[in-house]
Amino acid sequence: MWIYEKKLQYPVKIKNPNPRLAGVIISQLGGPDGELAAATRYLNQRYTMPSGEAIAMLTDIGSEELGHVEMIGAILYQLTKNLTPEEIKAGGLDKYFVDHTLGIYPSSAAGVPFDAKYIASKGDAVADLVEDLAADAAITQTLPLLNIS
Amino acid sequence: MNRDTRDRRGTAASKESLLKRIQALAFAKTETELYLDAHPDCAAALEYYRNIVRELKARMDEYEGVAGTIRQENENGERWSWVNKPWPWQLGVED
C-alpha cells in the first residue's frame, strides 16, 4: 500500500505562467510515454513477476513514478495559474480549457486522454520487462522534445 | 485558533534549504532502494542506506518542527493540521 509524504520529490517553483509550455508538458503527464503510463505499467506488471526482487523493483519504481506524476501536476498547475481567457487562447489552450478549465486532466499535448492502451501487461516476465526497456527508451526520446514549445 | 505549540520560527530561506536537503537525502534513499532490490546481499549498500535513513529521519523531524506535519502520524497539535496549506505544489508560489 502507499504512504504519502507532504512534499514533492524535487522542488517546483514556477513564477511565470506559460500556457504554451503547459500545453506541451501535459504529454509528460498523460501521454503515451508519460509518468502516469510509467506508474500504471510497473504497478500492474509487478503482480506476475516470478521473483521477489523483480516485484520489489517494479513496486519501487512504480511508486517513484507516482511522485513524478505529482511533480508534473505541480508544474502544470503553476504554469497555468491565474491565466486570463485571453492568455489561455493566445497560448493555444482554448480547446483544453473548454472541457477542463484549468483543472489538471491527464491527456497528451494533442488532446488524447490517458489510456491504458499505452501499457502492456502480459503476465510474462520477458514480454513485460522488454516492454519496460522500450518504454524507457521512448521516454529518453521524448524529454528533449519538450523544448519544442 | 491554532494552538499548536511547536516552534514555527525559522526563515522561509532556512526552511527551503532544509527541505532541499531532505529532498536530496530522500532521492538517495530511493535510488539505494532500487539498487538493493537488485543486490539484496550487498552489505556496503545496506550500510549506506541506513546512514541515509538516519539523517533523513532527523532532518524530517527538524523540518516538521518548523514547517508543520508532512507525515500524518506525526500530528501532535490540537488540530488536524494536515489540512493546512501550503500543499507541496503551492509552496513558494502562493500565500
How would you explain this protein's 3D organization?
The complex is a heterodimer of chains A (149) and B (95). Chain A has 149 residues and is an all-alpha fold. Chain A is 57% helix and 0% strand. Chain A has six helices and no strands. Chain A has helices at 19-30, 35-45, 52-79, 85-90, 94-100, 125-145. In chain A, helix 1 runs antiparallel to helix 3 (52-79), helix 2 (35-45) runs antiparallel to helix 3 and helix 2 (35-45) runs antiparallel to helix 6. The longest helix of chain A has 28 residues, at 52-79. The radius of gyration of chain A is 17 Å and the shape is elongated. By secondary structure, chain B is mainly alpha-helical. Helix content of chain B is 55%, strand content 0%. Chain B has helices spanning 12-38, 43-67. The chains are: A mainly alpha (149), B mainly alpha (95). Chains A and B meet through helix 3 of A and helix 1 of B.
Series of secondary-structure elements of chain A, N-terminal to C-terminal:
HHHHHH
Task: Give the amount of beta strand of chain A, in percent.
Answer: under 5%
User: Kindly state the mean pLDDT of chain B as a whole number?
Assistant: 91
From the N-terminal CA to the C-terminal CA of chain B, the straight-line distance is: 18 Å
> What would you call the quaternary organization?
heterodimer
- Shape annotation of chain A: elongated
Task: Give the low-pLDDT segments of chain A.
Answer: none
CA radius of gyration of chain A: 17 Å
Radius of gyration of chain B in whole Å, from Cα? 16 Å
Beta-strand segment tally of chain A: 0
Structural class of chain A: mainly alpha
Question: Portion of residues in helices of chain B?
Answer: 40-55%
Low-pLDDT stretches of chain B: 1-7
Q: Number of helix segments of chain B?
A: 2
Largest sheet of chain A: none
Number of strands of chain B: 0
